[in-house]
Amino acid sequence: MQPSTTSPIPGRSTGIGSRIALLFLGVIFGAQGAVGTDPAELSLARQWVGEHLEADSPQMPFSFVYDDQLSDRLLVDWQKTVASRKIDDTRTLRSIIWKDPKSGLEVRCLAVCYDDYPAVEWTVYFKNAGNADTLILRDIQGLDASFQRGEKGEFSLTGIKGDWNVAESFAPYRFELSPHDVRKFGPPGTGKSSDGPTGWPYFNLQMPAKGVIVAVGWPGQWASTFTRDGSTGLAIKAGQELTKLYLKPGEEIRTPLIALMFWQGADVVRAQNLWRRWFVAHNLPRVAGQPPPIMAHKHAGGALKDTATVQRMLDAGIKLDLCWRDAGGDNTWFPIAGGPYHREGKGWWNTGTWEIDPAKYPDGFRPFTNWLHERGVGFMLWFEPERVGDPNSWLAKNHPEWLLPTNALTFGDNPSNDPILDQGNPAALDWLINHVDGMIKSQGIDWYREDMNGRGPGQAWRKNDTPDRQGITENHYVQGHLAFWDELLRRNLRLRIDSCASGGRRNDLESMRRAVPLCRTDFNQVYQDGVAEATQGHTYGLSSWLPYYGLSSRFHDEYSYRSFYMPSFGMIGGEIPVLKKAYGEWREVAADMLGDYYPLTPYSLERDKWIAWQFDRPELGTGMVQVFRRDQSPYDSARLKLHGLDALAKYMVENIDGGTEIRTGNELLSDGIAISMPAARSARIYRYHRLE
Amino acid sequence: MPTARLFTVIVMLLSSLSAFAQATPGEMQARDQWVAARFGGGAAALPISFTLGGAPSATLLKAWKLERTERKLDENRNEITLICTDPSSGLRVKCVAVQYRDYPAIEWTPYFKNTGSTATPIIADIRALDTTFERAAPGDFVLDHSVGSNDSPGSYEPRTVSFGRKMNTFKLAPFGGRASNWTMPYWKITWGDGGAVIAVGWPGQWSADFNRVGNNALRIRAGQELTHFKLEPGEEVRAPLVAMLFWQGDQHRGHNLWRAWMLAANLPRVDGKLLPTQLVACSSHQYNEMQDATEANQIGMIDRYLAEKLPLRYWWMDAGWYVNNGTWKNTGTWEVDKKRFPKGLRAITDHGRAKGVKSIVWFEPERVTPDSWIFKNHPEWCFEQEKIPVELKSPPAMPSPPHGYHGVGNLFNFGDPKAWEWMVNHVDKIITEEGIDLYRQDFNLDPLPFWRANDSVDRQGITEIRYVSGLLAYWDELRRRHPNIFIDVCASGGRRIDLESLRRGYPLLRDDTLFEPNSQQGHTHGISFWIPYHGTGSIIGQSKLRADFNVPAGNLPDGNIDVNLFRSLMAPTIIACWDVRRTDLDYDSLRRLSAQFERVAPYYTGDYYPLTNYSLSRKVWMAWQFDRPDLGEGMVQVFRREESPFETARFKLYGLVPTATYVVENLDGGSETRSGADLMESGLPVAIATQPTALVFAYKRVK
């Protein structure tokens, strides 16, 4: 039996989620919200829900093939049970259960409909409630739905690329979908859910006068296909990439979480802001009802002696929120001496013993974390529980039966070939939960940072499937992985999780309901080319989809470190005066980055361009604008029109390098801010607030 | 005006000297070394390849004896002829190369002749170019190429391929048998601190493959896309012309040396002179091409241009002057429609000539529509559309034909000697009788399906070779009989502007997407890397041809002179399509802009420096510089597009003498004196407050 603790109900969202979200975005009474939910959008969503989930014979938005028969034909004859209940003020859970009278296969669709946003989501569960193995269940699509565009206009699809440690990560794309066009997406076989050029699991499908945002929540190997017919229709399929399996008695599997958000009009930027608001209201993980605050972080070793560098920053007046103990190159916090990886800087690849190295930390992290906590600073510790790189590690020695071999299992050759701890194995999962939970409690860990390197678990999953159970290893693994995080959060009410997988490669919606990405990409190294411009591009693309993310700057010039300002920010190295300036000005503007997002220039990585954006919190009347003039740009002045402001109000606009002016909202919206940047490779930041 | 004209004439005379980018000893040496290795060794060293009876030339040629002769063609050129013959089949392979003394250029054309008494085995996969460049310096090979003309804003868009471990193979080919349809046959290869510009001259279906070999080499193969044939005894065929120019220096050097060589050694001349930069005019957009044209309205238009003192050089009579059953699209009866032109076109051309205005007349000899004279009287001279098998008609990659006129009709076979002779004689006669000064040839048909449909299995590629050879000979013969005419090579815009075509004609209408400012800026930006002379249209008033051309609907300046639009489509030749019948136009502005154009247009043939990257975005600026180091003059054009948020910019200029002093004049008013060093290091500051706006700065060295 597999754990089935996965909740269909969004993480810790509460009945007051929306209100808290607005506070997060900065609600004050009387303020005008630039991005509000349109009643027409709510009815559009309701109509869709009515047709696809509520009608007597609904066009179910998922599909599967069972015993070679399509689900829409099968389900008609199966016994159906429907139930609805209010979860809280804004959400209704609808459950539809079908049962095959012959084989005992039970199909359970659990959908959540939102009253405050034009959104709906669902997950479909398949359980063998009979006494014998089921027949073959295959081609399970969590989403299988069609849309019509009307006679005029055409479908188009926007989104961003996933992360693969390059400048082009998170680059926006837009495709027009003409008759018979087919577009396919998915990670490159790694099982990391936001990996690679086609791996971003969120889409905005547009058609004349409306659109729908689609999210696939599956920290595994998903696939989606957008197929235009020859006429005015388009079909979307999305699900776990490979399913062709039978279920054993009592066994249960699930589809990815599918979320849809409907919007109207042609303003894609507004649609993305509606998405950001829904994301904050109902998805960002919460502690004590609060989404993650902006955070200044700093890397630290974790021993008591390491308090000195922290103290130096605190003494300089730099407010820190989090100390971050990372993998550490050859200076790991866990024992690696017996491991096979000896290349300089690669000692951390020797994973598998998740114990604190007593030689470095005789008293563990407690002395350090106590010291931090006394000063109001949290502690985050890096783990990589899945990949087992050291054949002499505790896991490899004591529980080889918990490890999934990869296609080319060769310890010490390449992290991509290392075996993977099977989180679908109940015993392994149980150990993992207890072990990590124990460390969290004993060491005073505030943030559990989880990484996942090498080629990911994808190849291990496939290798460990039998021909009649294809996809089963992955499905149980993914359920176990989510259950692991859920249980850590259940047992540690103040715990937060950082989702990392060689940077930002596992940031699907299910993951993002439990964690935030504090290292949104690995493309921030000093040996990489164009990191500042790439980082600008990453913020530009990613902000349409995720309101919260973080990264550390290893660069100490103003143009570069300003490129790294984001909700969670830190610097590695650097002199105190530079750190004081950077952390200080970051804190002045970072909270605004959780508001609505408006790109002010086109996306580009080219060195002859400017790139600029605005983050706006209309409820507070505050916001910030970042402008970068790159090194080869011939332009030395521009006028950028702002968005989302109250046309009738007056705003104080401050260049944080000096200078203020009072402008009306109307002027800022229609004439814009005049920006002069005589020096190439320079960065400007403006903040503004509404004058009462 | 007389002063301005005199100035222009002087500039034009100087331009014919082509004293722009000069070769350096290092560049000449690089070329010489390559030529010595490839044309100075054995037959196997030749930069060509093919198979004979399935055996690769790399193996065969080792055993063939090579004869090499060299002769001086003129002061600047030596011809090297290399001949090798297969002792068993009698196949003779001849490579005729021309080496330049004033440019680091080499060109060659391979010929294949059956000197035996029986048919040869199958000759296949002929690559007129097959060579491998090796690099010693770090940094991988980079290929710069361009989209061809495809009747879109994106025609001539520059593209770059950076070869590397993951990018190791790349292919290029045009679409449908017209040499620059969708893909340009000009490439710049960069490695280390220099490289080579390569062009394939073949007004047909070529293809090119670029393959990275190991870590340090790039193999380039190019030629006619499909060759697989036997040759009958005595039969000879040719392969494409290949030209290669070696350069060393920065990113601009290769293109500018190439442009200089194009002007000096390739573009056709009359009396030793290139076609001057110029303003010409037609009434196509007022009189529905030439369908509604008459002798009276054509003469009336010429007179109106002159009455308004607009600097008209040629009067352009486009499609529809011939007998055509009501639409210009019906071609194949090449007789002047005497109903509309009872005295022929001669009355119009004589009228213009008397007033200093020469004539351009449109032809489309290759497309033959039903009911035309050729269609009815000489069907044997044509390849029939109906006989093309479906699989040849619509290859999967076929872009849909953009216009109704495109692709209708049979193909006149220029490879048929009788057809060829008739066409030469007939067009020769019309040119003479009608007093035509510039022969404009259009081609609105993709010939490849016709060619392929008429090849037998063991003669694949032969129909195309015969056609291409005939077409080039046709142009050569017209020029021989009329040494004073220029030719305009058009093919639904610039879809056939390979090197062989541009040795005979100019691309006066570089693309059929017209009149919209940003697209025209993009066309100039892109085409200028390769072709120093080109033309496009300019409109004032409404157009009757919206259905046929990508004329922007509704937003044409109706009577007002749009300075941004005018300057966006300035090119070496402007084809004015202005509705000068109207007397309410702002002729003062038009005269001022035309005079400014005449003043700066000769700079277009100078060195080209893009000052911004290529973009069609409405949110950017575009800018470029054309520099005439031989004159110490040049110009900078700057465009702020309609949604650009940028209000000021600073452009660093190129090619100036650092120690010299220049006066830079904004043609809208104001000038400043700056040193060359200052302009190159600090740059030219440009402020543009409104969108969209186009500025022109002309500069001149004063000491």
Structure description:
The complex is a heterodimer of chains A (692) and B (703). With 692 residues, chain A is an alpha+beta fold. The termini of chain A are far apart. In chain A, 53% of the residues are buried. Chain B has 16 helices and 37 strands. The longest helix of chain B is centred in the C-terminal third of the chain and has 20 residues, at 462-481. Chain B is globular. The model of chain B is unreliable at 1-18 (pLDDT under 50). Classes of the chains: A alpha+beta (692), B alpha+beta (703). The A-B interface holds A 600-602, 606, 608, 610, 634-641, 672, 674, 676 and B 611-613, 617, 619, 621, 623, 645-652, 683, 685. β32 of chain A pairs antiparallel with β33 (646-651) of chain B.
Summarize this entry quickly.
The complex is a heterodimer of chains A (692) and B (703). Chain A is an alpha+beta fold and 692 residues long. Chain A has 15 helices and 36 strands.
Question: Which key features would you list for this structure?
Answer:
heterodimer, A: 692 residues, alpha+beta, 7-stranded parallel sheet, 23% helix, 29% strand, globular, disordered N terminus, B: 703 residues, 16 helices
SSE layout and pairing:
The complex is a heterodimer of chains A (692) and B (703).
Chain A: H1 17-25, H2 39-54, E1 63-66, E2 69-70, H3 71-77, E3 79-86, E4 91-99, E5 105-114, E6 119-128, E7 137-141, E8 143-148, E9 155-160, E10 172-177, E11 182-185, E12 202-207, E13 210-217, E14 222-228, E15 233-240, E16 244-245, E17 252-254, E18 257-264, H4 268-282, E19 295-299, H5 307-315, E20 322-325, H6 366-374, E21 378-383, H7 394-398, E22 403-404, E23 420-421, H8 426-443, E24 447-450, H9 458-463, E25 469-470, H10 472-491, E26 496-499, H11 509-512, H12 531-542, E27 550-553, H13 558-563, E28 568-571, H14 576-589, E29 596-599, E30 610-617, E31 622-629, E32 635-640, E33 650-655, E34 660-664, H15 665-670, E35 673-676, E36 682-691
Parallel strand pairs in A: 19-20, 19-28, 20-21, 21-24, 24-26, 27-28
Antiparallel strand pairs in A: 1-2, 1-7, 3-4, 4-5, 5-6, 6-17, 6-18, 7-16, 8-15, 9-10, 9-12, 11-14, 12-13, 13-18, 14-15, 16-25, 22-23, 29-30, 30-31, 31-36, 32-35, 33-34, 33-36
Helix pairs in contact in A: 1-4, 8-10
Chain B: H1 2-15, H2 25-39, E1 49-52, E2 55-56, H3 57-60, E3 66-74, E4 77-85, E5 91-100, E6 105-114, E7 123-127, E8 129-134, E9 142-146, E10 158-162, E11 169-172, E12 186-191, E13 194-201, E14 206-213, E15 217-224, E16 228-229, E17 236-238, E18 241-248, H4 251-266, E19 278-282, H5 295-307, E20 312-317, H6 346-354, E21 358-363, E22 367-368, H7 373-377, E23 382-383, H8 390-393, E24 410-412, H9 417-434, E25 438-441, H10 448-453, E26 459-460, H11 462-481, E27 486-489, H12 499-502, H13 517-527, E28 535-540, H14 563-568, E29 573-578, H15 587-600, E30 607-610, E31 621-628, E32 633-640, E33 646-651, E34 661-666, E35 671-675, H16 676-681, E36 684-687, E37 693-701
Parallel strand pairs in B: 19-20, 19-29, 20-21, 21-25, 25-27, 28-29
Antiparallel strand pairs in B: 1-2, 1-7, 3-4, 4-5, 5-6, 6-17, 6-18, 7-16, 8-15, 9-10, 9-12, 11-14, 12-13, 13-18, 14-15, 16-26, 22-24, 23-24, 30-31, 31-32, 32-37, 33-36, 34-35, 34-37
Helix pairs in contact in B: 5-6, 9-11
